[in-house]
Amino acid sequence: MAAIACAPPAFADHVPATAAKPAAHAVAPLAERTAAVHKGAIASAYPLASQAGQEILAAGGNAFDAAVAVSAALAVVEPSSSGLGGGGFYLLHRQSDGYETMLDAREKAPGAATRDMYLDKAGNAIENASISGALAAGIPGEPAAFEYLARKYGKLSLQQSLQPAIRLARDGFPLYARLQGGIRRKQSVLKRSPDAAKAFLTADGAVPEIGAIIKQPDLAMTLEAIAEQGAKGFYAGRVAADLVAGVRADGGIWTLQDLAAYRVIERKPLIGDYHGARIVSASPPSSGGIAVIDALNILSGFDLHKVDSATRKHLVIEAMRRAYRDRAIYLGDPDFVKMPLAQLSSVDYAAGQRSSIRTDKAMPSNMLPGIESEPVGMQTTHFSVLDAAGNRVAATISVNLFFGTGYMPPKTGVLLNNTMDDFSTKPGRPNEFGLVGATANSIAPNKRSLSSMSPTFVETPKGLMIVGSPGGSFIISMVLLGTLNYLDGMNAADIVKYPHYHHQYLPDEVDYEPGAFSDAEIKELQAKGHTLKMPGWQWGNMQVITWDFASGNVAAASDPRGEGAGLVY
Question: Does residue 459 belong to any structural domain of this protein?
Fold first, then answer.
């Protein structure tokens, strides 16, 4: 039976110091180390960001330098999804020695945050308090990640790697359809912030036309401060003072001390095996890796190729249901809570989970031991990088919902995240993605909220895939389906356009895109007891790179749901 286990020691015992402790080395498979000469590749959510990374690779940078360039460029050209006011996770593989690590640049709760800060005196949630206004913003981590990547893993200076983004912010770029749609969706929110309105709306507050040049001079100056001073250019000095002043003027609780104390933390990735494939994925406070691993372990006891397509999808849905249930109950910031990761990644635990799955019938989520739930928008971005030496990065970064809070502190060019909504503001209460949480993910000062971001490497003796996607709670199920499809031999272009289906434990329903199920599969799944719902919109923006070891062939594919670009150079 396939087994997936966490890399020791268990995260329950891992309490990193301010200076990050590096993860254990992981030697690359022999097939990879003897692979044919290959090209590098970048897949990101917008062509100008992919080109920024390609520019840095062409200048002699490695995958880690390119990751800085792509991240910073996305902050400029895809501000609805990530930015200097957000954070995320960078999964790294260094080819020379097989060293693998995850950079945790997740946002932190401010030092003055409290468990019940979004509840009224009666203990009820205050509407929109955790998503609107500066009180919803955590302390950003992305600028710190830029310096950390460049200093510890890159070949070029931070200043050089940030130049493409600075140029894009200063000189501008043409507005494209997806970003215009995001601006239209958040037009009223952006109007409430004069600096955000100036950056993304016309002088009379209208949505600009396609092709209009979007210039962000304040953001260019903030990027220049980071290029010249490193992380201190953001977390101290003029920019920090402007950020704190703007946040507090809008009702937030940031302090200069909160910014000065922010640190990137290196964490051991989760590493396991599924039918001979090596899975490397994000560790807590990302829930993505353990959830994908949990689901794969459950599925490892079934032969998915010997059952009909409807039964296969039923089994995948049931594995999703149980993995998301575990996410809701157990996971949080490893610096604050002890998590049973050894249990959740155990084949024995998966066997117990599997024993409750019937091939002919869905199990209602309320029959699984869980937490009490009350009755019952979104964006992030992902990019994948592979350089010609074999170094690779899978990075998922976010401001949480579209444009985060929509608020931009004056003179900074920085849109604030609303990642505080990713905490469990009240046990059992769904967040904006419908995810419920328990006390493990409750708010505490300087704590990092749980995330669904799932940057992942999938390796077999024949090749590898670098994969990830935005999509809030849907990320985990997309990466799970992408992994299964890659292992079934699907190519990169087909993986990114595959129709998605999703179950997240609560609400107890299966969301699916057009084409995910045939008419016959819909009837059979409904007969098994599944409640199916087609939302009428598509989700995700997957970015995939694949590498065939024998031929050296590299493919990069960007999700056709978005406007990204996969470049092979």
Answer: yes
Give dist(CA 297, CA 301) in Å, integer: 7
Residue 519 burial (C-beta neighbours within 10 Å; 0-12, 13-18, 19+): exposed
Domain membership of residue 281 (yes or no) is: yes
Adjacent-strand bridge partners of 386: 41, 392
Q: What is the mean pLDDT of residues 432-460?
A: 84
Residue with tokens 């009379």: 204
Residues 377-389 as b/e (b if ≥16 CB within 10 A, e otherwise) read: ebbbbbbbbbbbe
Considering all CA atoms of the chain, what is the largest pairwise distance in Å, rounded to the nearest integer? 65
- Note whether residue 178 is domain-resident: no
**pLDDT tens digits, one per residue of 327-370:** 888 889 999 999 999 899 888 899 999 999 999 999 999 898 75
DSSP state of 45: S
Q: Is residue 542 one of the residues assigned to a domain? A: yes
513 CB neighbour count, 10 Å cutoff: 19
Phi-psi region of 327 (alpha: psi -120 to 50; beta: other; left: phi over 0): alpha
What range defines the domain where residue 493 resides? 1-52+78-133+265-569
Residues forming the active site: 380
Separation of CA 351 from chain center: 29
- Please list, in sequence order, all residues whose beta carbon lies within 8 angstroms of the beta carbon of residue 205, skipping any fewer than 6 positions away: 187, 191, 197
Structurally, the chain folds into a number of domains equal to 1
Residue 336, C-beta contacts closer than 8 angstroms, at least 6 positions apart: 444, 447
The arithmetic mean of pLDDT across residues 111-138, rounded, is 95
* pTM of this structure: 0.92
Interval 16-40 mean pLDDT = 54
